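Handout, tutorial session.
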Amino acid sequence: MIRTIVVDDEQLALRHLMKKLQTIETVEVVGSFSNARDVLKGMKTLDFNVAFLDIELPGLSGLDLADLLKEWNKDVFIVFVTAYRDYAVQAFELHSIDYLMKPIMSERLEKTILRIQEQLEKRTTEKTNATLPSKALKIICFKEFAVYHHNTPVKWKTGKVKELFAYFITNHQDPIHRDTIIEALWNDVEYQKAKIQLHTAISYLRKTLDAMGYPDTITFSNGSYVMEIDHYECDVHQFERIFEDHPQLTDANIEMFEDIVQNYNGDYMENNGYEWALVKAHAIRQKISQLLQMMIDFFADQNLLNKKQQYLQLLVSLSPYSESAVQQLMRFYVKTGNRGEAVKVYHDMKELLIEDLGILPDQSTTGLYDSILNG
């Protein structure tokens, strides 16, 4: 939540800015002042993380007030508000996060608020990472399921114990009925024998986790098992958390998502042959495809054509049967004057569809191809 104070000696301008700020759900105005003296008296009793300061104030200027606020709390974000452009250089030398010209337009103010939100999120993430204990357990789920403890591969008693841990990680913190686990991992074994094998695997898994410093992580109640582990690192869980927490791409988080995409070197537990993991693999692949499309649109808006091409190609390689992805890449090549590549993309897809599925491309894709040939 953004908690802000507003300082302006012009009452009409003060009310105007406060009214605009109060219409934004993520903003709470906790104080308003007409001079720096009153701010200095009241700032220690107010909980705020942003200050909107008019530069032309009676007595102490907004620039001087910003200096004092930063000395008091270096984490306070300063937004200068003025009718004079001449102050811009001084304002940014004081490390303000933004500089607004009067009269303030709603669209411009919303950009400022978005910038502040991004910086607050970044600051929160940095503080969290700094205070978390070292994650000794590292779990890789993309392509090949692998587990490392202090960077050393974990030795499993049997392959089934490893698969059981993979199943629990897939359903982390969710109660799973014993029979559901048996159906997933021992569906070809007679039920009573399967129960014994499950209990044996659970025992071995508990001992392995205990030895790594994760005791009492698997509990049993009402016929169901639950595994809960703290302070571990998992590539897929990290991706899902970031994907949910950042529904929009911004300048502040785009590099984080580029790292995620570059680390996606295969489907969820692809090389392990776990049939029960296919549903999760499909869901993750859909999210990656959705993310790639978001990145394509983001770089298109930024007019960064090389980046757009890079992620269009990735999207097609991830979803080679997708008519939409292929059409986007074809149109991109045509727009950038590379008709030959557009034609090649079409033929590559056509050959793949015929060979793998025994079908031809959709009429809309064929129509686009014909229009490219005809100029």
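The second record follows below. Compare its token runs with those of the first.
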Amino acid sequence: MSLLGLYHPTPSLLHRLPAGLKLAALLVAAIGLFLIPYEIWLIAAAVGCLLLYAVGRIPVRLVWAQLKPIAFVVLFVFGAQWIFAGLHTAILICARLIALVALAGLLTLTTRTTELVATVEKLLQPLRRFGADPTRLGLLVALTLRSVPVLAEIASDIREAQRARGIAWSVRGFVLPFVIRTLRRTESLGEALVARGVDDD
């Protein structure tokens, strides 16, 4: 899984929609998810987000690729929230997490990274007068949308490796490999960006 995008070209309605419209829809959906207070409606919303993959003609293997990495994270968050905040809160948080990751993944699968960056760059042009670089900010937004599934994938891989070795769960045994692998992925990403002409000049 690459932080630079997983665009999957198919002749679907979602692919033909402008990147700006899809970004706006993602923002509205994210706000709406946090305004829904009932478990049943949030679960229905999460299922609806997953059904959008069918509209986008995304193969099942790619849908699973979006969800598999966050499975461990969702289970961990669900258990922790159930213990410390109750079942109601656990369901709300996990349903929102699944829906948001699904929507972010769908956006990157149906939108070219270049279009996404160009759209964000155009929206952020007014910030140029304050010394901001819209191009870099646009790239940052695109990378942020991909970062959650990628980090979740790292977490899932580490936990699977621990189970295969018969290692019991421990915070220390999980966090250290997670940090190391994240730093390595970040270094690889930096090298990829430099190769594409994105540097500190």
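Points raised in discussion: The mean pLDDT is 79.
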